[in-house]
Structure formats: C-alpha cells, structure tokens
Amino acid sequence: MQSDTKYLHALASIPSITGKTLRALAAYFPSFEDAWRADEGMLRSAGLDEKAITAVSWKRPSLDPDREMETLVRKSIWIIRETDSDYPLLLAQIPYPPFVLYGTGRFSALESQLSFGVVGTRKPTSYGIQATELITETLSRAGACVISGLALGIDAIAHRTTVEAGGATIAVLGSGIDDASIYPQSNRGLARRITESGGMVISEYPPGTPALREHFPARNRIISGMSKGILVVEAQEKSGALITARFALEQNRDVFAVPGSIFSLSSKGTNTLIQEGAKPVSCGEDILKEYGIEYTTNTGESEPLDETEERILDVLAESRTVDDIKALTGLDTSTIIASLSLLEMKGRIRAIEGERYERIL
Q1: 244 to each of 219, 269, 285, how far by Cα in Å?
Q2: Is the per-residue pLDDT at 315 higher than 70?
Q3: Helix 154-164 and helix 188-196, axial crossing angle in degrees, nearest 10
Q4: What's the half-sphere exposure (Cβ side, CA atoms, 13 Å) at 357?
C-alpha cells in the first residue's frame, strides 16, 4: 500500500541499508511503518548489524517519509518491491533479486515477446558500432525489448538504435535514476529519450545514489536477470561485459557473442566466450531463430556500405582470400577481416571453401 511504500522508501534512502537489510526488516516486522518506528533493540532483534542500526538512528530524525515520497511522485519515479505484481518475472527468478526497484517509464516495456540484453565495451571499434546497430535494429523491429546499462559505447548504441527503430529498451543503472545521479551524465538525454519512447530506466538504488564502482557488477546481474539471453558485442579480456556473461550463465540464461578479428583486443573477450560455448552471432536473425521468432529484414533495400567495405566489395567480383584482398587494396589484415564480417552480416558476401570470399549477386 502507498502508506507503507513511503516508509520502505525512507528506509531504503538511508546509507548502509541494503536489499538484504530491507528483506530482513520485511521478515521481522508486520510493516515497514513498524520497522521505521522501531527502537535500536527491535532493529537488533530483526538481525540488523551495528553499522545499519547506527545509520538508521543517525539519519531517521532528518527524514520525512511523506516529503521523500512526494519528491518521487513529483519526479515521476515509481518504486516496486519483489512481491509486487509489476515486478519483472524473469528477475524474480534469480538468486538474491533486488528487493526494490526504482524506475521511470512504462511497464509495457516488460510485455515484449523477448527481453534481450546487449552489452559490450565502452570503447567500441567501427566494427563493433556497426554490428551493434545492425543486430539491435533487427531485434527491435522484431518486437524484442533490448536491455542494457546506459554506459558509454555499446550500451548507449544499443539503446539509441532501439529508440530510433521504434522499439522498447530498458536501461539498468548503477546509480540513482534522478537527473543529478544518472551516470554517465552525458547519457542523461538518452535516458529521457528511452522513457519518452515507451521504455524504462531502472535501478535498485534510490535517487541521489552516486555511481560507485561496486554498484556495477550488481547492476550487471540485473541486466542478465531480466533477459532471456544476452549478446556481448565487443569486450576485452577483463571487461564488465564478461561479468554480465558470467551472471547470465549462473542464472541459466543464453549467452551469444559477436566474433571478431583475432588481431583486435576488443574481440579477445568475445572470441573467448565463443570458445567456451557462447553462440556466435552474425545477424539479429541468428538470435531470433533461437527463440522461434520469424522475422526477415529483406525490404528490397541494401544496408549502406562505408568506403572500406565498398573497396573490398569491388575486388570480390571473383572469389578471393584475405591475402588477395590485402594485395589488391593495401588495407591491413584486421581491417579486412572486420569489414568482411560486416559485409557478411549485411548479406553482401559469403564465405566459401578454401577460406575464400565471394560477392552475392
């Protein structure tokens, strides 16, 4: 009920009060109002440690639950707990789901036939950017809800592409979702576009919470927890995206990865994932087929090519190897391999026997 929610929010706003603490209070007290009014002895009986008890005793006198709740309403921020009917069903199935979620936007984003996570490096190559745009657009147009972390790089590209394709996307933050706390601040406008287009921005942290390093692994478990599967586009050997992939495996979710050049540091993590059993992806349809979703991108129009792709396509009037292409174009091997992968994704070439490539007429 609303009256109890304001006390839940007030308690959640106190530093040192974690989801584990809130869960202990919910198990011990009949309501969060009772927990709010409890003395130190009762809080100790509920299982709170001394740090949490001290934090409650110190902060409680300066917090007005009514005023704090009014601030949420004024900023169009909602709060739900894991027992509420609006709580994401997939997320409720993971070990230690967030006790509360704060959010802005529409719950209809959760009604998609496929909730799917897309993550990757904060410093993508041109290959990673194009692959993310190509795959994410297909997923969005097929009705999937794309979930990511609003970070710079692959995350932001996935969100932006989904919005531009008219799809729904959910951004999961490692900070509060209020304008002053959104991280990175450069993506504050993107967060607004996500909610205005029918998506959601959510966090387990109350408004005003800064983006701390330890928040991001916890954020990653929510991205994978809300998704049926995740795609890692580009990731170095030590990457937050790989942490998300590990959470996905622990949560019994599917893991997909975009293969990349063996010469690219940005693809070392994804290539390793594929070696360890992740499903390689060259287009959005590869993912959709895994979930029995029929979709075709054949609209009669070809995907645009950049200058490098045009140069390579020009020399593939007959089948050639990578070495042939290198000799004819003067391009370096890593650039050729990345462009060949994109040309395959765009349906312009195909690989044939003898490690050769040919143009599709």
Answers
A1: 9, 12, 22
A2: yes
A3: 30
A4: 24
Using CB atoms within 10 Å of the CB of residue 164, give its burial: 0 to 12 exposed, 13 to 18 middle, 19+ buried: middle
Q: Facing residues of 147 across strands?
A: 117, 170
Contacts of 267 (CB under 8 A, 6+ apart): 234, 235, 258, 259, 260, 261
Sign of CA dihedral 305, 308, 311, 317: negative
Query: Dihedral of CA 200/201/203/207: which sign?
Result: negative
Instruction: Locate 179 and state its tokens.
Output: 């304008």
Residue 301: predicted pLDDT = 56
Spatial contact of 109 and 199, defined as CB atoms under 8 Å apart: yes
The residue among 283, 243, 274, 259 whose CA lies nearest residue 119 is 243
How confident is the model over 61-84, as pLDDT tens digits?
A: 999 999 999 999 999 999 999 999
| Cα-based angle 346, 347, 350 (whole degrees, multiple of 5) | 125
CA distance 301 to 308: 20
User: Among 169, 150, 159, which residue's Cα sits nearest to residue 108?
Assistant: 169
- The closest alpha carbon to 288, from 245, 229, 244, belongs to 229
| Eight-class DSSP state of 34 | H
Six token digits for residue 198: 């029918």
Tokens encoding 302: 């070809």
DSSP assignment, residue 206?
Answer: P
User: For 348, which DSSP code?
Assistant: S
* pLDDT exceeds 90 at position 111: no
